[in-house]
Amino acid sequence: MAASLAGPGRGYAQQLSPDSVQQIQRVQQLPAVRIQAGLPSRFAVGSRTLTLDSVALAQYRSGTVADVLAARTPLYIKNYGPGQLSSISIRGTSARHTAVLWNGLNISLPSLGESDFALLPTSGATQVQVQHGPASALYGSSAIGGTVLLSSPPQWNAGPRTSFQTEQGSFGQQANSLEGGFSNARVAVRTSASQRSAQNDFPYSVREASGMVQHRQENAAYRQWSLAQDVQLRTGQHSEWQAAAWLTDADRQIQPSTGSANTHARQRDQSRRLLAGYHHVAARHESGLRVAWFEDVLNYRSDDVASNSRVQTTQAQAEHTFTFRPNANLRLGAEAQHFSGHVDGYQQAIDENRYAGFALLRYDPRPALHLTANLRQAVLPGRRAPLTPTLGAEWQFWQTPAQTLSLKANASRSYRAPTLNERFWPTGNPNLTPEAGLGYEGGLTHEWKPTADLTWQSELTGYHQLVDDWVQWLPDRLGRYTPKNLRQVRAQGVEVGSHLRWEHQRYQLRAGAEYAYTQSRKVRGYNDDPDPVNQQLAYVPLHAAAFSTDHRWRRWVASTVLTYTGPRFIDATGSNKLPGYTLLNATLGHTLRVGPAWSATVLVQGFNLTNLVYQSYEYRAMPLRSGSVSVRVNWH
What we know:
By secondary structure, the chain is mostly beta strands. It is globular. Helix content is 8%, strand content 58%. The longest helix has 20 residues, at 18-37. The chain has a 22-stranded antiparallel beta barrel. The protein has a 5-stranded mixed β-sheet with strand order 1-6-7-4-5.
C-alpha cells in the first residue's frame, strides 16, 4: 500500500477521501499475487529450475540468449561462430529435445523442430528460466531434455522509465538498444528495440603442411534487429488483458569451415510473433485464454544452392483452474495448433492441425510438503502420441530460523512429435513415430540465511532418462539421408549449483557456481544403425561448469565469468574429439549521476581474456581476445 501511494502521485493521494483511497488500494492489491501464482511453473514441483533475472541479463543487453546461457549456466551451446547458429543441449539430448516458450507458447521453428538461440536477442524478454528435465505434461512436444522459458513479467507501479545503450567492439561489432516503459496500478507497457552488427573479420590460425598459418575470417558478417512490445491492462479487480509482439530480423553470412572454399553462403531469418491473452481471477476459479500467430521465414543462398522457407503457426490455449481449498487446485486446459508451411524442399504446401488436452493438479497437504500430478495427451495427424504423466514432490524436512533442507523428486514421461522436415522433406519419412522419454530425478536443496544480508542457496540433482525411437538421419543405398526411428538413448548425470548473495553497507556480492556431469549414450539400436553402442554421443561434453561473480560498490560494478566445456566427440564412432576449453570474460563499469532522474553507465567488457584458441564446433574458428565499450543512459 505504501509503495503504491508513494512517489509522484503522493500529493494527489492526499487529496482523496479515505473511502476512495481504500478502493484504489483494493484494486492495486488483489490481482497481482493471484495472477503471478497462475504460472505453469507452480505445477513443476520436483524439477530443477534456474532463473536469470534482469540483473543477470543487464550485461548482455546487446547480446542474445545464447550469450547469457553460455556464460551463466553449464549448458552446452554448440556455436558455429560468433553470430552464427547456436543450438543447445540439455541433459545430453539434442537441440530438438528442448522446448522454447515465449509467454507460454512454443516458438521453436516447426520445420526444424528447434530454435537458433543466436536469433533470440535478450531485449525480447526480461526473464529467462531454464527448467531441466522432461516436462511434456506442462509444455507439450520437445520438452524432453529441458525447457527454456522467455517472459517479461510486469513491474507494477514503477512509473515511467527509459534507457538507451550504444556499444562498439572488436572486429566491427556495433550495437544499439532502446527500452522504455510505464506502469501504474492498472497498466504496464514495455517497448524494447535493439540492433547489432559485426564484420567478424577476426584472425585465426590453421595448421598446414608448412606449420601454423594465420588467416583472417571471411564471409562471417551479420546484421540483426529486434522489436518487442508488451502491454498488460487490468480492468477491475479480477481481470487482466495482455498483448505482446516480438519481431526479429537477421541477415547473416554463413561462416565457412576452416580450410574449405568460400561459397558466399548467406541466410535471412525473419520471425513475427503476435500474442493476445485474457486472464480472470475469482474467489475459487481462475480462467485464461491466449491466442497467437507466428511467421518464420528462412531463406538460404550460396553459389550452388538456394532454398526458401516460410512457416506460419496459429496457436490457441484455454485453461481453467479450480481452487478446492487454499492448499489444493486443479487446472484443466486444451490447446490447438495449425501449421501452414511453404518450403522449397517439400513436394507441396503443408497444412496441419495438432491438439492437446492437459490436467495439472497441485496439493500441499502440509506447509512443508508440495505434491503435483500432471497429465497431457496430444493428438497428432496420422500417429499416436504417448500419454505423458508427471509426478512431483518437494519436502522441507528440516528447518531452523537460519537454514532449510528440502528433498525433491520427479518422474515424468515425455514425447517429441516428428518435425515437418523429418516427415515432408523429399527424403523424409512420413511414417515416423513420436519419440518417447521416461525420466526420473531426485535431489537436495539447502538454503542458509544466518543474517538478513547473507543468503547461500545450494542444490544437488541426479537424474536418469531413457528416450525411445530416437530419430537419426542415415544414408540409404543411394546415398540419400533419410530419418529413421533407430535408437534408444540413455542420459544420466549429476547437476550441482550454489549461489551466494551478500550485502555489507554499500557493497553487494552475487556469486554463482554450476557444474554438470552428463553421460549420454545409445544403449540400443537396430541392424542398419552403424553407430556403436555405449558410446558418448557426439557434441555432449561429459563435464561442464560455470562460475560467475557480480560486485557492486558505490557506483562501480565488476563481473567475472569463467566457463569450462569438456572434450566432445565429433562423431558417433568416438575416434575423434575436440579438446576442452576454459573461457574467462570480465566486465567493469561506472555509473555517473547526471541529475535526480538521469544516470549514465560506462561498461568495458573483455572476452576470452586468456587469448585461448578453441572451437565449439569442428572446423569453425572462434575469435581470440576481444572487447567492447558501451555507454548506457537511464532515466527514471
